[in-house]
Amino acid sequence: MSMLSSLFGKDDYPPSAFYFKVVLGATLGMTDASFQEVSGMNAELDTETVIEGGENRYVHTLPTGMKSRSLVLKRGIAPFHSPLVLWCRSVFELDFIVPIVAQPVGVYLMNVHRLPIRAWSFANAYPVKWEVEKFNATSSEVAIENITLSYTYSNRLI
């Protein structure tokens, strides 16, 4: 049995979606906080319809480029000193006095041995929406914040 098959054995397939980590470029590889959910990890093309002159049986659908991309991070409201909170504050609360700093973001799906079994990188990400979910006096749920990041492109690494 090879080392890779022992690290990525049959216990890792199909992978579970509940054990993952998110790493921001500004945190120097450290995880910022525990996230409840990550969504928006997709790729989709914009297309245009072209009708060919003289051929009326069908139309062509041609790619024009990638659709806008958004990565949504959902977690309990983080402390004031969190690198992600500081990054969001620099974008949303400083009235563009300082330039928006884009940074790479990594999402890693982990196995039971705390090793990444799948990984995605998101280039030039920056916050475009920072939302606190509603508070409800009749519920005992954790206060949640959603942070939407726009990014240039993504790659699956593993």
Automatic annotation (TrEMBL):
Signal peptide: none
InterPro entries per UniProt: CHP02241, Phage_T4_Gp19
Pfam families, per the entry: Phage_T4_gp19
Name this polypeptide is given: Phage tail protein
Organism name: Janthinobacterium fluminis
